[in-house]
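Researcher: Structure for this, please.
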Amino acid sequence: VFGMVASADGTKSWGNVAFMAVDSETSLVGGRANWSMPKTLATFDGSIGRGETMSAWSEGPVRWRVEATPVRVGPRLKVRSKQPSRQEFPDGVVRDSAMVASAVIRPALVRVEVVSDGPLASWLRPGLHLGAVIESGEFTLGEPE
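Model: Predicted structure, token format:
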């Protein structure tokens, strides 16, 4: 589960990862140390089957739960992206990391439920959203500049 805010300044665009839940301490430490990604540990359940619910949650120190039920509404699409990920590092400097991604996605309507003791539910809004199911994909992040 991750939330990314897309932004643009003139013709240059970038994404800022505001939230990312992972199930591996190695991923958590590597993502925070190398790219200043705000990763948190979570437990996951479910699959991306048509109409099936996927869940992610954490029991502390801030408890939260996100459930997403996607319904695919379009054909498979091959997408490629080469946009920077822009994150603020612990020293206060904002740095870009080259993010290159390729994926096969399906447009979807996604019913989202969010419960949180913290601010997560104030910006990751529950309800029906236009989204995508990533059927396969890969991405790389370069060294921060």
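Researcher: Any notable elements?
Model: DSSP finds two helices and nine strands in the chain. The radius of gyration is 16 Å.
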